[in-house]
Amino acid sequence: MVSLPASVSLADPCSLSDDLIELNSVSASGGNCIVNIKYSFTLTKNNGNKFAYIHFWLTSNYSAPDYKKGPTKDELGDVLATIALSTDSPVTLLPDYDPDNTVTPIFAGLTVSETDLGGGSFRITVDNIQLTVPGACSSLPDITADVWASQSNDKETPPVHCVLKGSNVILPVTLAHFNGTLLDNAVSLSWTTTEQMGSRYFDIERSGDAREFAQIGRVDVSGNSQVTQQYRFVDAKPLSGMNYYRLRTVDFDGRFNISRLIAVDNGVGSVAFELLGNPASDREIRFLLKNEDASAIHLYDLKGRALRFSLVRAGNEFVLKPKDHLSAGLYFLSLQGISTGLRTKKVLVP
Questions:
Q1: Residue 257 CA neighbour count, 13 Å, CB half
Q2: Can you give the residue range of the structural domain that contains 220?
């Protein structure tokens, strides 16, 4: 649905890549279309960074600023919204747009987070962005976003040290979640879609440095759908150390878009804790536990009562056998690890 955006580095202090717009919701209000989205991008702070700014337009109204400096209100044209960020960790929202104080950034109701990808790179995500698009929601609006960053403290005419200009529009496949779990000698990837229209397949891509990616598999999209669809892929030969994964969603017309990154640590000593089958079978709970003491495993019912059990081990796979009868229902299998803290799995006993 979109061509791959190009990262344009104007100087060394930073670089930007992999921006993504994800749809949260669309609703009509007063003859306008209210589009709620999530926006994310990767920022590499090569020599430090201080500020980043995001602008949104309808694609048909995109003003294509030249970014020789921070764009003014006139240069932004019919912009739908602007967001200002301080990129000193932890990243925070700013109420002012320094290049032109007549531009008011949206601020209230937004959430912002960052994930350290290593090597000076950070994945920054801004969620609950509400854009008011004039006109009825007869079709899903195409949205274009630019993001640029500056290392300068010059408030009035900050230089643009890096910029990412894209025609990155809302995904035809709406990802509800994308997760990765370390198994014994593999990584399990799972994702859920809530809507998919006109898409053909997912390419699963992996990287060891969050920069250079290679395809490791492909999963076909299960047709057009407006109901929840679940997908799974197992990376049987993950890299040693950190593994970064992303999904490339490809449409029937060849256009594509790229999901956010997820990271799974397959380093020496990395802890793996995962159910092997859910619902449980024969009132026994099977699970994988790697690089953690099995004495840290506990089983609780919905009232928080600890239940007695014995464990049978074969390598890193365990079978939990309750000492008392388990009634049908939901239970919690917990790992209170020394280095990992509390991890809990919900187990259904039919």
A1: 22
A2: 173-266
- The pLDDT value recorded for residue 4 is 36
Beta bridge pairs of residue 202: 219, 249
Q: Is the pLDDT of residue 102 over 70?
A: yes
pLDDT of residue 167 exceeding 70, the answer is no
pTM (2 decimals)?
A: 0.53
DSSP state at residue 41: E
How far from chain centre, in Å, is Cα 317? 30
pLDDT at 137 (0 to 100)? 67
What is the structure's pLDDT at 22? 76
- The span from the CA of 336 to the CA of 131, in Å, is 43
Rounded distance, CA 238 to CA 265, Å? Answer: 10
Mean pLDDT of 173-186: 79
Interatomic CA distance for residues 15 and 114, integer angstroms: 16
pLDDT tens by residue, 33-48: 888 888 888 898 876 6
One-letter amino acid for residue 32 of the chain: N
Taking the C-alpha atoms of residue 38 and residue 54, their distance in angstroms, rounded to an integer, is 12
Counting the structural domains of the chain, the total is 3
Mean pLDDT, to the nearest integer, of 272-279?
Answer: 86
pLDDT at 9 over 80: no
Domain boundary among 141, 165, 189: 165
Q: What is the DSSP letter of 61?
A: G
Is residue 78 located within the same domain as residue 14? yes
Q: How far is CA 278 from CA 44, 69, 271, in A?
A: 40, 55, 20
For position 242, what pLDDT does the model report? Answer: 87
DSSP-assigned beta bridge partners for residue 130: 36
Instruction: Give burial (CB, 10 Å; 0-12/13-18/19+) of 13.
Output: buried
The number of angstroms, rounded, from the C-alpha of 34 to the middle of its chain's C-alpha atoms is: 22
> Does 251 lie in the same domain as 284?
no
Count CB neighbours of 256 within 10 A.
Answer: 21
Residue 228's CATH number: 2.60.40.10
Task: Looking at the structure, tell me whether residues 101 and 207 fall in a common domain.
Answer: no
Instruction: Give the mean pLDDT of 96-115.
Output: 91
* Measured distance CA(135)–CA(29) in Å, rounded: 9
